[in-house]
Amino acid sequence: VKRGHHILCKSTKALPYLNKPHKRNSWRRFVWWWVDPPVDAEITSRPAPARIDGPTVTFVDGTRADFDVVLLATGYTQRFPFLHPPRTTHAPDPRGGATAPRGIEDPLPSDHFVVDPAEPRLAFIGFVRPNVGAIPPMAEMQSMWWIARLRGQVTAHRDPPSYGLLGRKLAYGVDYGNYMHQLAAEFGAAPAVSQLARRPRVLLAYCLGQVRGRGRGAGR
């Protein structure tokens, strides 16, 4: 299973509208037309806005339209002013990812985006962004890994992290299955090959990246 490139949209209701412009130009549109759920014809997909003049929005492809309401879903900037001094430059990502493209952001800790070796009792739980999968089970795995680390139960020798997304849009975007496996392996919660071989369905789920902990500390 290859490492992911981007953080995917997980909304099954939004995807038909986001994908519609791309599917319209594909030879496979006839297949998608048959299997895709029905969509509201009054909802259209447009490219990124280039300019807003009152109610008129001009898009990057040159088209224009008037709207009653414009909602700016700009996201947020990750800052911890109570922990970091004001920053004017981006620190390089120690895992080989990109620096933050959305503005000046404070970095996450170096050890799996959870802890800084200089502050082992301060943990950042749930801040990573997976390409697929949910954040709650990742936060659960991070919590178990952090507790095991505080108890001295995390292996000292580690393989270099390989879970950074290849697209590198976010420095802390990770491949879900790869990230979960690396954390679980470091405190003995990753299943052995012999265990997976006896449970084909679990083996298939594990190979597809659906990782949960087992063994010491897992499930508690």
Strand arrangement, major sheet = 1-2-3
Q: Termini, distance in Å?
A: 29 Å
Q: Major sheet: size, sense and barrel closure? A: 3 strands, antiparallel
Strand content: 5-15%
Keywords summarizing the entry:
alpha+beta, 220 residues, disordered C terminus, flat, two-stranded parallel sheet, three-stranded antiparallel β-sheet, 6 helices, 5 strands
Structural commentary:
This protein has six helices and five strands; from the N terminus they run ααββββαβααα. It is α+β, with helices and mostly antiparallel strands and 220 residues long. The strands form two sheets. Strands 1-2-3 form a three-stranded antiparallel β-sheet, with no helix packed on it. Helix 3 packs parallel to helix 4. The protein is flat, with a radius of gyration of 21 Å. The C terminus is likely disordered.
How do you describe this structure in short?
26% of the residues lie in helices and 7% in strands. By secondary structure, the chain is of the alpha+beta class.
